[in-house]
């Protein structure tokens, strides 16, 4: 929350001197959409895609998503790095389904404990495409999301408990400090001449020190939040009002539309199966 008459950037930090006083500029385009709309849209799209395990519906949904990704204007390197967990999970998922999926049709080879057939390969392809179709928007739409905006939407629009939402927001903010803390611990140990011992022992001792530091910071943060009324009962006021207007409804409509179009195409082609 910000005091009246002060300006803050999207991360909630006060404006530097000389920047002037005024309202926070509202981001335009997709970046200005309330993250709760993206969350609801992704959940609706996932529900549409899990209703069937055919290849056509997942392929259509993935093709539509790839066609819309350039509109987000995300650098290719950032896009590749953020989606790398999904890209790694897709082949592993497909391999497990191909080896242990329900056998049907022509058998390609038998490993004793695993059977690879036409049916298992088709199921593996459908599962891989479906993981991509659900995981891609779930990652891409939240690359540039400000955690504070998401917390505002969860508390004001979805009516989640403010105590839980603000605690989770504070935890997310603190996670970014773990890397700095680890580097500072390493430099401190090196300055004291204890950084050249065994790597395993050094890593274990630094992990324990990092845990103690995180617990101390969490205790201090909890006391500070309680002293500022974050745990007080009653109606809470918010520095920024979360809205759910035209852009948010458009985001939900686009994601739901992708799921509806993929289902319609699969039904028309005859591959839809529950």
Descriptive notes:
This protein has helices spanning 35-49, 55-68, 76-82, 84-100, 118-140, 147-156, 162-175, 178-191, 199-227, 246-269; strands at residues 107-110, 115-117. The protein has 274 residues and is an all-alpha fold. Strands 1-2 form a two-stranded antiparallel sheet. Strand 1 and strand 2 form a beta hairpin. The longest helix is centred in the C-terminal third of the chain and has 29 residues, at 199-227. The chain is globular, with a radius of gyration of 24 Å. It starts with 34 loop residues before the first helix and ends in a 5-residue tail after the last helix.
Question: What distinguishing features does this structure have?
Answer:
disordered N terminus; two-stranded antiparallel ribbon; single chain; 274 residues; 2 strands; 10 helices; 3% strand
Give the SSE layout:
Blueprint: H1 35-49, H2 55-68, H3 76-82, H4 84-100, E1 107-110, E2 115-117, H5 118-140, H6 147-156, H7 162-175, H8 178-191, H9 199-227, H10 246-269
Antiparallel strand pairs: 1-2
Helix pairs in contact: 1-5, 1-10, 2-5, 2-10, 4-5, 6-7, 8-9
Helix content: 55-70%
Radius of gyration, rounded? Answer: 24 Å
Instruction: Please report the distance between the alpha carbons of the first and last residues.
Output: 48 Å
Shape: globular
Q: What pattern of helices and strands is seen along the backbone? A: HHHHEEHHHHHH
Give the overall average pLDDT: 80
In what range is the share of β-strand residues?
A: under 5%
Structural class estimated from helices and strands:
mainly alpha
Contiguous helical run count: 10
Strand order of the largest sheet: 1-2
Please count the beta strands (DSSP E, at least 2 residues each): 2
Which stretches of 5+ consecutive residues score pLDDT under 50?
A: 1-24
Major sheet details: 2 strands, antiparallel
């Amino acid at each position: 929350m910000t005091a009246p008459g002060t300006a803050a950037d999207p991360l909630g930090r006060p404006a530097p001197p000389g920047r002037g006083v005024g309202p926070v500029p509202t981001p335009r385009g997709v970046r200005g959409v309330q993250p709760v709309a993206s969350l609801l849209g992704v959940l609706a799209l996932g529900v549409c895609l899990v209703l069937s395990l055919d290849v056509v519906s997942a392929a259509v949904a993935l093709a539509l998503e790839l066609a819309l990704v350039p509109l987000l204007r995300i650098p290719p390197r950032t896009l590749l790095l953020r989606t790398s967990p999904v890209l790694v999970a897709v082949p592993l998922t497909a391999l497990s389904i191909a080896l242990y999926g329900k056998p049907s049709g022509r058998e390609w080879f038998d490993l004793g404990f695993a059977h690879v057939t036409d049916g298992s390969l088709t199921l593996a392809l459908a599962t891989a495409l479906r993981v991509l179709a659900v995981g891609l928007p779930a990652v891409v739409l939240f690359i540039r999301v400000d955690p504070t905006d998401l917390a505002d939407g969860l508390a004001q629009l979805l009516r989640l408990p403010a105590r839980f939402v603000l605690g989770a927001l504070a935890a997310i903010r603190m996670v970014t400090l773990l890397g700095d803390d680890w580097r500072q611990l390493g430099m401190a140990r090196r300055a004291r001449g204890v950084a050249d011992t065994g790597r395993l022992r050094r890593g274990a001792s630094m992990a324990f020190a990092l845990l103690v530091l995180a617990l101390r910071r969490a205790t201090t943060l909890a006391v500070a939040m309680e002293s500022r009324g974050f745990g007080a009962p009653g109606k809470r006021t918010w520095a920024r009002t979360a809205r759910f207007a035209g852009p948010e409804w458009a985001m939900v409509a686009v994601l739901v539309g992708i799921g509806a179009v993929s289902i319609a195409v699969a039904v028309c082609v005859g591959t839809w199966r529950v």
